[in-house]
Amino acid sequence: MPIQSPPGTLPSLSPSAPSSSSSSSGGLWDSVDGLHAWLDAHGAVDGREALLLRVLKLSEEVGEVAQAVIGTTGQNPRKGTTHSWDDVGAELCDVALTALVALRSLTPDAGEVFTRHVAKVAARSLGQDAGAAGQERRAAPPSR
Predict the structure, then answer these.
(1) Segments in the chain forming alpha helices (H)
(2) Which end of the chain is more exposed for a tag (fewer CB within 10 A), N or C?
(3) Model's pTM, two decimal places?
């Protein structure tokens, strides 16, 4: 999990509440801002050290993805199959959220920075077909 705390101490962020439109990411960035503020208020360190620790937290979360993949594929003979692909997906979400909170720790304009970066990567990788390729991917079911 991106944030570990005693029960009942997280702010009410309503991450599952619908945003103003189904394609809007405003709810996501409101949650990222809330988590950033919560970490700032409850962290044991602040400033540069807090930023560095938030970036390092990504390594921990990526390790949890690896653990879930190993558990899904049963690659540890001592443990067998311990995870599902849903667990892998949840861990990937933790990685993404942790990265977004770290980005927000770098800049209050994290949403704009991220959107511009995604547009650059899409333009570079997909060219003019970026929008159409995204629509095709959303329509196709995931393969496993």
Answers:
(1) 26-42, 47-73, 85-106, 110-126, 130-139
(2) C
(3) 0.72
